[in-house]
Amino acid sequence: MKPINEMKLKTQSKSVNESFTRATVAAFAVQLDPTVEELADIRTAVSEAVTNCIVHAYPESVGEIYIWAGIYENGLIRIRIRDTGCGIINVKQAMEPLFTTLGGERSGLGFSVMQSFTDKIKVRSVAGKGTTVTLEKYIRGREYCDD
Amino acid sequence: MDVKISSSPVRLTVFLSGELDHHSAASMRAQTDKAIIESTARLIRLDFGQITFMDSSGIGFVMGRYRLAHGKGAQVEVTNLTKKYLQIMKLAGLEKLVSLKSEQEVNK
Ligand SMILES: Nc1ncnc2c1ncn2[C@@H]1O[C@H](COP(=O)(O)OP(=O)(O)OP(=O)(O)O)[C@@H](O)[C@H]1O
Ligand SMILES: [Mg+2]
């Protein structure tokens, strides 16, 4: 399946960029005519993945975050967030609710939030090489909105 | 300013506004904690009514304030949560630690 439209964004892993990256992807998704709620779901899921690049992938340095999004004829949006940071040794464990390697004010729920706010998530990671998170969401739009 | 404080002898209310993410949490945390530390009230209310965005950083934020308040013997309640934010907080099991109230449940 080929996307009918695509976007790419490369940004530095600085926390000040969290806000505009999620807003940019959400603005791109608007052409699928999503509900306010669906847009909020996209913003939240993207924010989780981007924040993970900033706090986990490049803990002591500033690296690049590569974001790609494609939309498809059937109302699907696929969003890929990639870093070339430290990678995840055990992805299955990392995705479990409440699992975190940082503690402090991290709750270990980023992946759970991504899971519950999208239809599908795929995580590929190589220790020392980096991580790619792919999110998929079907935009049902206003026709299914019940209010 | 993204944090406004209103306090009485029984209750400290922290009105949060804007986007609560990993970036903005730092300054919200500093302002809120200063108020909690200075307060002698037994109830700390975190009002999310003007929050326009939140992700899991918001969960960490509430958890951190709970720990601080709990250490002083104070209770925490989180008010004016939208359905979505209530859902995120419940996902974290936060309702066992703090009282969570949606928009309808708070009538003032
Ligand atoms: N891009 C990444 N690079 C390296 N490690 C990552 C990356 N994303 C996630 N991780 C690892 O997976 C763990 C779980 O991530 P998740 O987002 O679920 O929780 P968290 O970031 O620790 O806490 P929260 O998102 O609730 O603030 C992280 O603690 C970290 O060890
Ligand atoms: Mg996270």
Number of strands of chain A: 5
Number of helices of chain A: 4
Mean pLDDT figure of chain B = 92
The assigned CATH architecture of chain A is: 2-Layer Sandwich
Q: How does the overall form of chain A come out from the CA principal axes?
A: globular
How would a crystallographer describe the biggest sheet of chain B?
5 strands, mixed
Instruction: Kindly report the CATH topology of chain B.
Output: Transcription Regulator spoIIAA
Low-confidence stretches of chain B: none
Biggest sheet strand line-up of chain A: 1-2-3-5-4
Biggest pleated-sheet summary of chain A: 5 strands, antiparallel
Largest interface: chains, residues each: A-B, 25 and 22 residues
Strand content of chain B: 35-45%
CATH superfamily of chain A: Histidine kinase-like ATPase, C-terminal domain
* Total beta strands of chain B: 5
Oligomer: heterodimer
Overall morphology of chain B? globular
Number of domain units of chain B: 1
Summarize this structure briefly.
With 147 residues, chain A is of the alpha+beta class.
Task: Describe the overall structure.
The complex is a heterodimer of chains A (147) and B (108). Chain A is of the alpha+beta class. Chain A is 32% helix and 27% strand. Chain A has one domain: Heat Shock Protein 90 (2-Layer Sandwich), CATH 3.30.565. In chain A, strands 1-2-3-5-4 form a five-stranded antiparallel sheet, with helices on one face. In chain A, β4 (120-126) and β5 (130-138) form a beta hairpin. With 108 residues, chain B is α/β, with parallel strands linked by helices. A five-stranded mixed sheet of chain B has the order 1-2-3-4-5, covered by helices on one side. In chain B, β1 and β2 form a beta hairpin. Chain B is globular, with a radius of gyration of 12 Å. Classes of the chains: A alpha+beta (147), B alpha/beta (108). At the A-B interface, α1, α2 and α4 of A face α1, α2 and α3 of B. The complex binds adenosine-5'-triphosphate (ATP) and magnesium ion. Adenosine-5'-triphosphate sits between chains A (48, 52-53, 56-57, 83, 85-88, 94, 99-102, 106-111, 131) and B (56-57, 60).
